[in-house]
Design goal:
With about 180 residues, this protein is α/β, with parallel strands linked by helices. It contains 6 helices and 8 strands; from the N terminus they run αβαβββαβαβαββα. The longest helix is centred in the first third of the chain and has 25 residues. About 10% of the residues have low confidence.
């Protein structure tokens, strides 16, 4: 009987440890240094249409920090982080941070908008970006977010979903903006 009690206790403990390890591996923050920074001296060119209809190049935003988030409607973690990304955008817009949520799907915007009904979203949702432009960012998965400093240089990546409205993320964004 004592062995079965140990097994009953051990199984949930092993499962919890496994989940912690899994989420640690899935959600990574990477400071961009060394060879990666050489590849990304400036953020790769990305031309897109803003929600107001104006065509913009990412390099046109130099002078503002940019949080460039790649997402898709079929990506559940992407959709779950959208409301907190919207909160981050609202809190940091006055600090010179521009949040761009770039959809990587090649579906018409009108089809995708139907899937977004009722979800709190960032203001700058970007659709219809050419696949060739996105490929320059070497995405290995989504959500994938890049913090680009005011000089136009990527300085940190965030792989996997985040609670962008958490005190920890606000602290990190404060530190990145202060650089």
């Amino acid at each position: 009987m004592a062995l079965s009690k140990k097994i009953v206790i051990a199984i949930p403990v092993i499962a919890i440890v496994g989940l912690v390890i899994f989420f640690t591996l899935v959600s990574r923050d990477i400071e961009i240094e060394g060879s990666l920074e050489k590849d990304f001296n400036l953020a790769p060119k990305l031309e897109f249409r803003m929600p107001n209809g104006k065509t913009v190049n990412l390099h046109d935003l130099k002078g503002n920090a940019v949080l460039l988030n790649f997402w898709a409607t079929w990506c559940e973690p992407c959709m779950e982080e959208m409301p907190s990304l919207s909160v981050l955008e609202k809190n940091y817009r006055s600090h010179g941070l521009t949040v761009l949520a770039v959809n990587i799907q090649e579906s018409p915007e009108s089809e995708l908008r139907d899937k977004l009904e009722g979800i709190r979203l960032p203001q700058n949702l970007i659709f219809n970006v050419k696949r060739s432009q996105i490929s320059q960012y070497k995405l290995e998965g989504i959500p994938y977010t890049i913090f680009i400093n005011r000089e136009g240089r990527p300085v940190k990546t965030f792989e996997g979903p985040r609670d962008w409205a958490s005190p920890e993320m606000f602290r990190q964004i404060d530190e990145l903006l202060a650089r």
